[in-house]
Amino acid sequence: MTSDDEATRAGLLSRAGAFFRTHPRGTAITGGALALVIFGGGALAAGAATAPTSAPATSAPAVARSASAAPSSSAASTPKATPKATSKATPKTTARSAPSPVPSAVPLRTCTVAGAASDARLGTFEGTVLDAKSGATLFDRSGSTPARTGSVMKTLTTAVALADLGADYRFTTKVVGSTTGTGIALVGGGDATLSATPAGSESIYPGAPKLSTLAAEVKAKLGTKKITNIVLDDSYWSDADAYDPSWPASELTIGYQPRVVSLMVDGDRANPTLSVSPRSSDPVGRAGEAFRTALVAAKVSGASTAALTRGTAKSTDVLAEVKSQPVSTLIGQMIPNSDNTLAEMMARVSSKVSGSDGSAASLTAVYQKALKGTYGLDASTIKIVDGSGESANNGVPSALEASLMRKVLAGEGSLKLLYDSLPVSGQSGTLSTRFTGANAIARGAIHAKTGWIDSAYTLAGTVDAKDGTQLTFAFYAIGNVSGTAREALDTLATAVYSCGANLSDD
């Protein structure tokens, strides 16, 4: 306290004593108020210390009047006591506004992954990391910008299928026709797992229905009646957009992607026991040939010479029918191996069942409706060209994908099926051989879907961080990228694992 402060306080004490001597009845109240001003005035003292030294000593009582109704006269004169003035036991006060609440402190996050995120191997990088519990964005690089996803798209396709079809939905293939014989029709319903493998053997889709079962049922219904014609009906959706122009032609010949039609067998693979196997230019025709072979083996009369024609079934009488395994099982076959064929079938059938036409052009609206209506996600900026993620023209913001992964981690709806099918870092699926070297510390802690097309490598999923925090993320490495982007993505995900809740968005 300065000497000026001490003089000021001494003056106030002197004037207070004079007032008490001339106002004995108001001493208890007014004195208490003045004592509050004089002795409790840490704030006043601070104010006096910062005020110009030339300020008059009467400025302090002026402040006191606004707070505690001290006498309005100058301290230099003694106010006259009157019965009216001294009869007021409660001094008049001036209302003060309530203090603004102090906002909660925001923890300072200091762990950075900026170096890993700027790795040149990631090309043009986009990515988002969310706190799984609160939904808070911990890290963001162009997270609201739609971008190509690669096979990460299959997580959206799964979510849409579970919303529109349900976990118990089964794809149906029928044979229709009259029991009088002559003509029958094989009608596709989008089941790419329907298999031409003989009884006792399995295709790449274990437990799939077989053409031999259909043929045996046809034989049981027709008996000795002869067939002369087999119609192949793939009209469940139009096959005019069966192969998107943005898909490389090599995907067909190498064997990653078939033409997307509603009638095929074994995913149109030349070798039904291999995941990657050349596909044909006519999956419907291939299915027809395999069905006729099965009919011959079942001893259906006339099958060996029956004509195969393309068209729409005329009869509605069902001679035979088989169903796929449920969507819940197919998800477990699609996600770990990143099966493009099942993804395209789920997308097109979801379109049909939800009331659209099954076309590729319908998918954006179908996905937007399901993601918003079922999961409450804002999918207004997405562009969906296919269900597999093969097209570089797909567009999904990494922030939306990371938000979907929050729903997946929480098991919302039937999404636990998707979580349980995700590859695990260093342990299963397409991540079984990844997260090596320094990144091995995150083995078993990251559940994520991988993606790869010529112009993108992607990774999206969940992280059980080192500090126990659960995070969700989506990372896109876009542009002129190579296979080395995989390790860069693993390194970034491992860095996020190490940071946990302390992850900084610097």
Describe the overall structure.
The chain is α+β, with helices and mostly antiparallel strands. The chain has three domains: 3-86, no CATH class; 111-166 and 357-504, DD-peptidase/beta-lactamase superfamily (Beta-lactamase); 172-325, D-tyrosyl-trna(Tyr) Deacylase, Chain: A (3-Layer(bba) Sandwich). The chain is 34% helix and 15% strand. It has 16 helices and 14 strands. A five-stranded antiparallel β-sheet has the order 3-2-13-12-11, with helices on both faces. Strands 8-7-6-5-9 form a five-stranded mixed β-sheet, covered by helices on one side. The chain has a two-stranded parallel sheet with strand order 1-14. Helix 11 packs antiparallel against helix 12. The two termini are 45 Å apart. Residues 1-95 have low confidence and may be disordered.
Topology at a glance:
Blueprint: H1 3-22, H2 27-39, H3 42-50, H4 59-68, H5 83-86, E1 111-112, H6 114-117, E2 124-131, E3 137-141, E4 146-147, H7 153-164, E5 172-177, E6 182-187, H8 211-222, E7 227-233, H9 250-254, H10 283-297, E8 307-310, E9 318-323, H11 327-334, H12 340-353, H13 363-375, E10 396-397, H14 398-410, H15 416-421, E11 446-453, E12 456-464, E13 470-478, H16 484-499, E14 503-504
Parallel strand pairs: 1-14, 6-7, 7-8
Antiparallel strand pairs: 2-3, 2-13, 4-10, 5-6, 5-9, 11-12, 12-13
Helix pairs in contact: 1-2, 7-11, 7-12, 7-13, 8-10, 11-12
